[in-house]
Each structure stands twice: as structure tokens, then as C-alpha cells.
């Protein structure tokens, strides 16, 4: 099959295995390389989508989930920069240095490093990024230097939704188009969506559109029309928390509507059956943010005592518990993927080998990810693999065979995620042999860190 996949990809065709309605595996020949729309929310929690029982209205994400495949154990990193590095390189962020394991304004990727956009560009794809980059906040490290033919949004991290400034400092002015700083008016979610829609509308060949929204990262601000939708509800007995959650809910619903706009332009182009859509979040939500946490952003900012939820998972953003690294994720490809759900663990590093293998691109042995298409398509139920996290260069996690070890300077915690998905029972003292074995695997993985670190960055 691999030989034929490569052969057809070179002729502008892709062969995909899939599971039909009868439950039997089949093969479909796609006469054009499928478009790829990859949407990444910022700080959206497991419990912040309607299909997970949230009070927040997310009708477009709910419909996407109903028509697609829910990846119920899709893992990311605990914070933004490392997750983005994983997606675009297929490698764990520590491979690029300790600074890549936390939010970084320093450049993460070596000059000319080949990303997912680079590989897809080599086989005929147009490539565009619209939203948050955060892999190098200086214009000289813009996405256009790493395989994206078009780019727009924030070079740095999250920004104020209206003035578009990042935190005070050398990278505060960050809004750009193709690496050139620009000054525009409008809500950040609307601007990102407008630019992405316009770009998709004008494509004449297969495209990879990466849309990493800055929503729902603080500062949390939503247009009044979206605020009005929650005005008469009561979501918390505490008045300040109630107001805060309404803003967060409005901000989330606004982003959900933007996802709907992206799906609509795909429909208008009659590209639904030829477009793979993936939605995920870069890490779990934070439950609150005090004034100190947002006062670094220029403009009038307010304390937000209630924000997102990762319930029933334990933990939050910046933690290695499930609530920090397991996020709502859906893949949709009508006509190829049957609606359903998959509980097999998958990591965001897996998208690089999954997409590139499907398109007949050469595979890099340095990639940490695994081609997960056989599991996603239903061809196979299981793929042997382990998962590794390096966070801050001092906190680590390893997952294999249902066991998850979290190792920090304060000690180790061991959980059986299969039987205890909410991490309520630490089995480290009870299972010392498993702790020792998995700690050894962490040490093996750490030997590969820093192997692609830029010489001009400071950890």
C-alpha cells in the first residue's frame, strides 16, 4: 500500500484507507490531495464545549463533533509554545531547547527548519497561517521563513482582542502580515477569520490553512452582541464570578461562530468532501486570572475570577495532569471518516507523520510522532507507542500502556489512566517497579533534548 500511496500522491492523487458504514475497511482514491484546515483554540478547556456538557453555546463545534471523529484522548503540551512546536515539527519541544518547553519569545526553530507547512508545500500545497505564531516573536523569525507562503496575526502570544498588543516589552507590537508589522482595527477573532476566509476563497490548488486563534486566552473581551446572548442568564452565585464567566462564554461562542465561518467557506467552494478539518486546543483552561495576570497587557484590563473548565479532568493549564494536556479534539472528513469516537491515545506530534505519510512525503526518523491514520480511519484499533512530556526542563511525564508517571522536583506520581481517568489515586508507592521503569524511559527521552537547539538562544 505504501508504494501505491507514494505513486498516486506524485500524480496528484491520494489513496486513503477508511472504515465504511458496514464496519468493513475499504480504500478510497481521492483524485486531488485533500485540503487541510487545522484550527487551534488558545486555552480552551475540556469542559468548555457544548458536547462535553458546557453551559457555553458552541453549536458549530458540536456539529463538527457530530459529523466527525472525536479524539477522546488527544494530548498536547501544558502551554502554548511547546504545543505549537510539536504540531509543526512532529518533535517534542525539548529537542529545541528548554526555552521551547515554555512560552517563548526567543526563536524556537533553527533557521530554515522544515515544518509541516514545508513538507506540504513541497508536494503542491498552498500554505497559510492566520493567528498566533509564538515560535519566535521577532519579525525576522516570522512563519514565512518556515514554510508558510502567507501569514497574519500575532508573532508573539495572546494579545488584547481590540488593540492587538502583546505584553508590555520589546514584543508588545506584534500584529503582522507576512512578517511586516501592521496596525489594524477590529476584534482579533474577526480579523483572523476574515483573513483566513479570504485566503481560502482565492486558492486554486490544495491548501493547508492553519488557524491558531488567540481566543480564549486572556485578556478576555468579546463584542457586545455576543455578550448580550448571556446577559440574562445566571451562571454563578457570586456576582463578580458570574460577570467574568459571561465574558468568557461570549468570547468562546464568538470563536465558535468564527469556526462556523471557516466551515461555511469550505462548503461554498464545494470542498467539503475534499477537506480534512481538525479542531483542538493548545492546552487546558485556566479557572481564573487575577489583575496582575492581565495588567501586563496595554489597555484597560479587568480581573477575571472565573474562566474556563477542564472538569471532570484534574488540573489546568501549566500542569501535567490530564486537565492541562488533554483537550477537546475532532477530525472531520465527510465521505471518508465515519462519525464516531476514538479512545486510543494520540499526541499533537502525531499530526506531522500522519499528514505527510498520507500525502506521500518523505518521513524523518527524528520525528517523535507516529502515523495515526490507521487508527483514525478504523483500519486498526491500536498502534504501539508511548508519550513523553518535558515541561520547563524540570517537570516530566511519561505515558505507556495506560500508566502515566509525572516526575517533578517534589517527587513522582503514578496513575492508571485507564481505570482512574481523573487521577484520584497515586500508585507510586504501591508500584515502585513501574515508577522505576518509566523513570528510566524519561531519562532516555531526555538524552534527545537540545539536539536541535539554536546556538543563539538562552535558556
Helix/strand order: HEEEHEEHHEEEEHEHHEHHEEEHHEEEEH
Which fold does the CATH topology of the largest domain refer to?
Alkaline Phosphatase, subunit A
Strand content: 15-25%
Mean pLDDT: 93
What global shape is seen? globular
Please give the domain count: 2
Structural class: alpha/beta
Helicity, in percent? 25-40%
Strand order of the largest sheet: 9-8-7-6-10-3-11-12-4-13
User: What is the end-to-end distance?
Assistant: 44 Å
CATH class term of the largest domain: Alpha Beta
**Radius of gyration (Å):** 21 Å
CATH superfamily of the largest domain: Alkaline Phosphatase, subunit A
What's the arrangement of secondary structure elements?
Elements: H1 2-9, E1 14-19, E2 25-30, E3 35-41, H2 59-67, E4 69-71, E5 74-75, H3 80-89, H4 116-122, E6 126-132, E7 150-154, E8 175-177, E9 180-181, H5 188-201, E10 207-212, H6 224-228, H7 239-268, E11 275-281, H8 291-294, H9 322-325, E12 330-332, E13 340-342, E14 346-347, H10 351-358, H11 373-376, E15 387-391, E16 395-400, E17 403-408, E18 411-416, H12 432-446
Parallel strand pairs: 3-10, 3-11, 4-13, 5-14, 6-7, 6-10
Antiparallel strand pairs: 1-2, 4-12, 7-8, 8-9, 11-12, 15-16, 16-17, 17-18
Amino acid at each position: 500500500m505504501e508504494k501505491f500511496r507514494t505513486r498516486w500522491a506524485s500524480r496528484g492523487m491520494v489513496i486513503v484507507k477508511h472504515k465504511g458504514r458496514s464496519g468493513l475497511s475499504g480504500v478510497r482514491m481521492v483524485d486531488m490531495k485533500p485540503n487541510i484546515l487545522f484550527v487551534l483554540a488558545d486555552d480552551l478547556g475540556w469542559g468548555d464545549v457544548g458536547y462535553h456538557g458546557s453551559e457555553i453555546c458552541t453549536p458549530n463545534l458540536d456539529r463538527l463533533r457530530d459529523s466527525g471523529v472525536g479524539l477522546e484522548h488527544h494530548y498536547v503540551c501544558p502551554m502554548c509554545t511547546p504545543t505549537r512546536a510539536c504540531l509543526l515539527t512532529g518533535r517534542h519541544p525539548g529537542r529545541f531547547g528548554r526555552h521551547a518547553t515554555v512560552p517563548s519569545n526567543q526563536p524556537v526553530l533553527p533557521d530554515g527548519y522544515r515544518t509541516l507547512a514545508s513538507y506540504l508545500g513541497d508536494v503542491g500545497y498552498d500554505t497559510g497561517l492566520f493567528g498566533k505564531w509564538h515560535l519566535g516573536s521577532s519579525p525576522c523569525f516570522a512563519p514565512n521563513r518556515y514554510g508558510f507562503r502567507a501569514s497574519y496575526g500575532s508573532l508573539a502570544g495572546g494579545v488584547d482582542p481590540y488593540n492587538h498588543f502583546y505584553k508590555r516589552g520589546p514584543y508588545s507590537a506584534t500584529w503582522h502580515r507576512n512578517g511586516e508589522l501592521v496596525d489594524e482595527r477590529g476584534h482579533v477573532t474577526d480579523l483572523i477569520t476574515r483573513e483566513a476566509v479570504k485566503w481560502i476563497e482565492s486558492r486554486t490548488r490544495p491548501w493547508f490553512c492553519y488557524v491558531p486563534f488567540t481566543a480564549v486566552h486572556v485578556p478576555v473581551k468579546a463584542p457586545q452582541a455576543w455578550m448580550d446572548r448571556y446577559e440574562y442568564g445566571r451562571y454563578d452565585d457570586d456576582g463578580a464570578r458570574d460577570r467574568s464567566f459571561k465574558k468568557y462564554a461570549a468570547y468562546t461562542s464568538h470563536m465558535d461562530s468564527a469556526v462556523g465561518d471557516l466551515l461555511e467557506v469550505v462548503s461554498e467552494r464545494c470542498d467539503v468532501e475534499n477537506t480534512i478539518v481538525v479542531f483542538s486546543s493548545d492546552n487546558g483552561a485556566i479557572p481564573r486570572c487575577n489583575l496582575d495576570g492581565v495588567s501586563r497587557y496595554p489597555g484597560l484590563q479587568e480581573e477575571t475570577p472565573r474562566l474556563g473548565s477542564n472538569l471532570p479532568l484534574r488540573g489546568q493549564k501549566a500542569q501535567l495532569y490530564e486537565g492541562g494536556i488533554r483537550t477537546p479534539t475532532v477530525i472531520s472528513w465527510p465521505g471518508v471518516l465515519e462519525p464516531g469516537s476514538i479512545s486510543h491515545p494520540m499526541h499533537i506530534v502525531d499530526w506531522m507523520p500522519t499528514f505527510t505519510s498520507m500525502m506521500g512525503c518523505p518521513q524523518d526518523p527524528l520525528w517523535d510522532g507516529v502515523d495515526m491514520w490507521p487508527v483514525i480511519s478504523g483500519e486498526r484499533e491500536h498502534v504501539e507507542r508511548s508519550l513523553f512530556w518535558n515541561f520547563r526542563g524540570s517537570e516530566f511525564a511519561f505515558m505507556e500502556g495506560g500508566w502515566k508517571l509525572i516526575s517533578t522536583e517534589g517527587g513522582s506520581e503514578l496513575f492508571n489512566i485507564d481505570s482512574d481517568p481523573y487521577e484520584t489515586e497515586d500508585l507510586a508507592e504501591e508500584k515502585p517497579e513501574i515508577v522505576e521503569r518509566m523513570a528510566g524511559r524519561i531519562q532516555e527521552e531526555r538524552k534527545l533534548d537540545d539536539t536541535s537547539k539554536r546556538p543563539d538562544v538562552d535558556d
